[in-house]
Amino acid sequence: MGVLELRDLCIEYSLGDGAALAVDKVSLAIGEGEYLGLVGESGCGKSTIAKAILGILPRNGRVRSGEILYRGRDMVGLSVAEMNRLRWQEIALIPQSAMNGFDPVYTVQQQIAEAIDAHVDWPATRKRERIDEMFALVGLERSRLADYPHQFSGGMRQRAMIAMAMVLNPDVVVADEPTTGLDVIVQDQILYRIKQIHTQLKKTMLLITHDMAVVAENCDRIAVMYAGKLVEHGAHDVFERPFHPYTMGLCNAFPDPGDESRELVSIPGAPPPLRAMPPGCRFAERCPFATDLCRREEPALSSVGDGHAAACHYIARAAEFRQRARLAETWQAGAEAA
Amino acid sequence: MNGLRWYLLRRLVLLLFVTAAVLTILFVMFKLLPGNPLSVFIDSNFSEEMIRRQKQLWGLDAPLWLQYVRYMWNMLTFSFGTSFFQMTPVRDIVIEKLLHTAAMIVPAVVLSVVLGALLGSWLGWRRGSRQEGAVVVGLLALRSVPSFFVGIIVLMVFSYNLGWFPPGGMVSIGGQGDSFLETILSLDFLHHLILPCLVLMTREITSPALLLRSTMLEVKGSDFLDILRAKGLPERRIVMHATRNALLPLVTDVAVMMGFLFQGQVLLEIIFAWPGVGRELVAALNDLDYPVAQACFFVMALIILLFNFVADVLYAFIDPRVALS
Question: Which of A11, A142, A298, A302 has its CA 20 to 30 A from that of B322?
């Protein structure tokens, strides 16, 4: 059993005249000390999952059905007080926007101390020591503790955010696109810090990103989402032998440092609108290998190897698809046919 | 903290500079004013010699630059001279009238800000609802109606027709207390205060209400509120963070509002026969009471400048981003 487990999770947003299902029956487990990468395009529901885990969905969002289990205990429907006990102490968040993640009118130190005060009753010296320790962990100078967030650079702010996330030594850390808006070098530093926390402190991590390369480099396991559905998940095998055409597309869309001859392929088109989901496979419209069956019937996740599952009708032809998916023409032709 | 000190110093220098500029403009303005400042003292039967002596007495025969220097010095040391008519020091008159004006403005502003802020956050909360739309339209309408118009209507209805409130003045005749404090703590004063205060509020409440509505909307969408929730903070802490951020622009708004009210309510003081500084200014101009008019002008301008200064300083203290930029 995983530390954190999603079971048939459905999350919807109510919009003025109806509801949109942003996450549709997603089941996923993260084991103790595991580093899972959740990838997908913007709007595929990955950030919604992060928000749901911490219970910070926007006002119009709600878990419609399913469970979010933390150590076997369902967190959906917990009271605010019960939820607050789990938050930060057990599950902490490294948010997407470190830029605006801190309240601009309090110092960084005050805001980290506030997280401590909300959960434990430590004397001032112990708090101070712990915050110092966390600043050292992420490589920030102690002299910057009394600074306000706007006095930090983007990268420093994100590091301070990591320090704040780790301050209560949580079991699980959810990092929701932690490198958005940072330049490439800083991105790398931040990901390195997060990886370090995983390896040195043995934390269970969930990294949400749109960048396959980041997942390939950092994570033990990967889960791929498309239009609110989980389409493939597994260990490193997923990169080497993807079974879902969308995963193949994603893998080919990012450069492979080991194989510079390979051409980069993009997937034409855009995901279907959440409020008008087509029947059948949601990727069918953009999939160069789609058949009538795909447009009619929704494929279920089925096992394709050790801990590796994909939701495609044609997992048997995956080897052939993989070859063809490497070529840009395949995707181009698919786009024209559609 | 060094940044803050520099900021304060810069603001202070600016304040002095602008005050000097205002005084200079005032000097030129009174020089350009038609008529002779001494017309009150000079009779048409006066001989040249007598006129010259009068001018000498008031220092008006000195060269212009010397007059300017003396004027600046006197104004900056608050030596406003003696009223032509009341034969009392202008400083005493101005202080008394300012207190009267403050007695009307302060309660109106405090009530407007508190009620307006509450109304504004409610509007921000109910954003998009029909009630919100209606209230916003109502507020905009209130904001557009001149307060002297509202004042006349209110007087007509509640004083002349219904007779619930006195038609004007600050206290009933003979109702003056021994001290200013005693006066404003009397029920009679309260009775006189209600109408003008309400009229003032109809206008002043709109600004904090509309302001807080928009800042609340802005703050409500901030990412940091999500993080605060994720940190497991109790609801009241989160609301505190949101409010502190939403209130930032209001602080400046209130200070500026106070400043402008001291001069902006001249009409209201006249309608309600309120013995405040605005009414005094108009009376002094009519009577050609130069020292009083000058002092009133200066003090009203100074109050605006001071409140603007206070706004800047307060803002630097509550929003750390200001002092450093």
Answer: A142
Q: Which residues of A touch B246 (CB under 8 A)?
A: none
Give the least confident one: A67-76, A273-282, B58-67, B193-202.
Answer: B58-67
Place of tokens 């600004």: B207
- Tell whether A110 and A179 lie within a shared domain: yes
What is the rounded distance in angstroms from the CA atom of residue B288 to the CA atom of residue B285?
Answer: 5
A14 near A25, Cβ under 8 Å? no
> What is the total count of domains within chain B?
1
Compare all CA atoms of chain A with the CA of B236 and give the residue at the minimum distance: A118
* Cα A132 to Cα B36: distance, rounded to the nearest angstrom: 74
Residue A3 counted as domain residue:
no
Q: Could you tell me the residue range of the domain that residue B291 belongs to?
A: 91-318
A-B Cβ pairs (cutoff 8 Å, strict): 78
For range A227-240, the mean pLDDT: 91
Amino acid at A105: V
pLDDT of the residue at A160: 92
Strand, helix or coil at B162?
A: coil
Point out the least confidently predicted range of A37-46, A201-210, B204-213, B282-291: B282-291
Q: Judge if A139 and A268 occupy the same domain.
A: no
In a domain, B39, yes or no: no
| Average pLDDT of adjacent 10-residue blocks, chain B of 325 residues | 78 92 89 74 76 79 84 84 81 86 88 89 78 89 86 86 80 70 75 85 88 86 88 86 83 81 79 85 84 86 88 79 62
Name the residue facing B231 among A88, A97, A107 (closest C-beta): A88
In chain B, residues with a C-beta closer than 8 Å to the C-beta of A87 are 229-232
Full residue range of the structural domain in which residue A156 is found? 33-52+79-224
Q: Is it the case that residue A141 has pLDDT exceeding 70?
A: yes
Whichever domain contains A188, its CATH number is 3.40.50.300
Q: How far apart are CA B201 and CA B284, in angstroms?
A: 28
Q: State the nearest Cα–Cα gap between B110 and chain A, in angstroms.
A: 25
A48, pLDDT greater than 90: yes
Residues linked to residue A206 through DSSP beta bridges, in sequence order: A36, A174
Cα within 13 Å of Cα(A27), Cβ side: 10
Contacts of B269 (CB under 8 A, 6+ apart): B101, B104, B275, B276, B278, B279
* H, E, C per residue of A108-147: HHHHHHHHHHCCCCCCHHHHHHHHHHHHHHCCCCHHHCCC
Name the token pair of B321.
């981003």
Name the token pair of B239: 């609301």
Give how far B242 is from chain A: nearest CA, Å. 9
pLDDT of residue A97: 65
pLDDT value of position A9: 94
Res. A8 pLDDT band, cuts 50 70 90: very high
Name which of B231, B233, B248, B315 to mutate to probe chain A: the one with the most chain A Cβ atoms within 10 A of its Cβ.
B231
Could you tell me which chain A residue has the CA closest to the CA of B229?
A: A56
